[in-house]
Every structure is written in structure tokens, then in C-alpha cells.
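Dear colleague,

As promised, here are the two records you asked about, laid out in our usual form so they can be pasted straight into your sheet.

NAME FIELD: protein one
SEQUENCE, THEN STRUCTURE:
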Amino acid sequence: MRTKSILVFRRSASIVWTIVFLTMVTVAHATTHIIQFGGSFGLHYSPNSLNVSVGDTIRWEGDFSMHPLSSTTIPVGGQSFHQTSGSVFSYSVIIAGTYLYQCDFHVGLGMTGSFSALLTGVENIQTSFQPDAFRLKQNFPNPFNPTTMISFDIPFQTTVSLKIYNLIGQEVATIANENMPAGSYSKMWNAISMSSGIYYYRLQAGAYSETKKLVLLK
């Protein structure tokens, strides 16, 4: 029994040191990529798209009060992002895949961007996560004005409907109505034309359905 315990301890220690070593290697080769917008760049992100490596950092530089930043599509297991103030925002890339983002105010004028994070071999451990169930998360921020992000998990490909309703059950907005592969998603609702009050958002995906409350406070 003692010999078995020693073997288990040695294996655990080996795994821990391996993780520490791989983390050090990843950090040592990490790069910070700068994306600028506004000012002389106008309603564009520069660069508009780029390839990065897992472990790198993306740093946006500009006026977020004039150009609020929101992720619109992220890979499975990735963390959505949203920034509405300040002049610098950094995002650490820990999941491989393609990320899409936008300026909430000027997306209709084409102010969007993307970056693709590539695998180096070390980060495969971090990309093995798949949602194991449907989940509808609380919107953020809440209360909000005028934009908020709604995130949800889809464990397998299915048709997804995400809609907003007022207090008397009238549909006021459709955020998503499409077939989606398994993954974690974040969708933005811009309620600039809506009145302050309580609303509900409902996710329907296959047989799954869930509703949560959000508050628009102007």
C-alpha cells in the first residue's frame, strides 16, 4: 500500500511539473498584438484581422466610450469580452479558434474585426473542453444601457432561437435564429431604441428552453 501511494505521489508531482514547464514555455514565447481604432484610423480596426498563437495577448487601443467593443463569436471554451470605457483593453488568448468582434455603435458601418488563434501543440489540453449541456447565462452587464451581452452553451449542433420579450409577452427583438454547431456563444443586444424597463430573453434549442430577466436602465 505504501509503495502504491509513493507511485501515485510521484506521478502527480510529475504531472504538476510538466504543467508548470509547459506554462513557462508558453509565456516565454507569448506576443502582444496591438489593434488600433478611431482617430486617424476612422471606423476601422487596424489590423482588421490577424493570426496569433494561443498564449498571446490582444491589446486594443482607442476610445471605448465612442467605440464600445464586444465579442460576437468565440471558440468553444473561450471567454467573451466587452469593453465600454477607457482607452486600452487587453485580452489573453487561451483557446484556439476564430474570434469575431465589433464596435457596438458602428457595426452597421462595417466596424468589425477578427483574429484566429493557432495551436502550437502545448495548448491542446486547453481546447478539449466541450459544453456538456445547454446553458443560458445571465446577461452582462445587468442592468445595462444600451447594450448587453447574452452568453449560452450548445452541447451539439441544433437550431437556436434567442429572442427578447417585454413584460406582456410581446417579442421585441430576435438576437439569433439559426442552426449552430456545438460551442459557447455570446450575442449582443443593442436596446438603444427601447424604453427603460424589465425584459425577458428566451433561448430555445431543440427541446431545451430557458428564460431569464434583464433590466434596461436609461
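NAME FIELD: protein two
SEQUENCE, THEN STRUCTURE:
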Amino acid sequence: MLPSYETERLILQPRTLDDLEDYVAMDLDPQVVKYIRPTEDEETHRAFLKERFAVTYETGLGFWSVFLKNDKGHKGSFLGWVFLVPLARQGPEIEIGYRFVQKAWGKGFASEAARSIRDHAFTQLNLEQIVAVTHPDNKGSQNVLKKLGLQQGKDRFAYDQILPFFALSREDWKRLIPTA
């Protein structure tokens, strides 16, 4: 089981089937999936996501659903997800990634949520490195990765295409976190 995390503004919880409809709605927005792939029709996509929800990962890896904290500090509206999984579902590198609804864009939520999962990778899993890939034109996602401390390297083949590749080593992460 994945741990839950809270930040100043967010609650991150391991995804469950209770989150399915939020994931479906987010992925049906063409702007959200612009750099990923077109979403199939709603029912096909719902079935695809159900299969994905059933996938299990090694301890400490998986998907967290991200929610806004409400005024009382409880779980509010769904904003998106963050994951830590084998790169392109194959590995061996461990990839950090995220997807958020449009209303959450430009507010620092992706950076805030992914920072918790980045730190989880190094403190709880003792990983030596995390990586990420993005579409070449997805400057917003690339900016989030840079805010997290990931450095862009040579492009890599992943998800059946050549993509910009980013990485953060444990040693570089320690320099970002004074108490690490």
C-alpha cells in the first residue's frame, strides 16, 4: 500500500476505483491529453483505465490521486495524479509523471504534488535516480521537471517515440534538500 501525503494545499492518496470517473473526465479533455494521445470514446477509455488501475507495482511505486485541501483541511476537489512507476511500464529506470485538470494548471499544484513523490522516491525507496520523459513541445511539463531538480539529458526512446529525457540523481537531490 502506498502512503498518503499532505502538502500545504494538497492531499495525495493512493488511487482507487473511487477515483475512476475523475480520471475519465480529465482524460476526455483534449487539452489535457494534447501531448499524450487522443482519448478514445468514453466507454473504451473507462475500460482501459480499469485495466490500468488493476496493475500492481513493486512496493512504494504506483499512482497517487491529488486533491485540493478544502477550508477544513479535508479532501476537496480532484486535481489530477502523480505517479512513480517503471519507465514506459518497462524500466529499469523509475519514472515520475503527472497529469492535472486544466483548472489546476499554472498554480504550482503539479510541482507541489510531484515534489512529495520525488522525495518519497529518495527517502522511502532509497532510489539512486528518478527519470522523466515529455513530449518535445510540452514546455509546461518540462518546467515542472526542472523545478523538481531534474536535468535534461539526451533524448531517449520511450513510449514508442524519441522524447526529451530528464533525470535526478540521489546526490543531486541531496543538494536540493538541506536535511536529506
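A couple of things worth noting about protein two: The first helix runs from residue 20 to 27. The two ends are 24 Å apart (CA to CA).

Best,
R.
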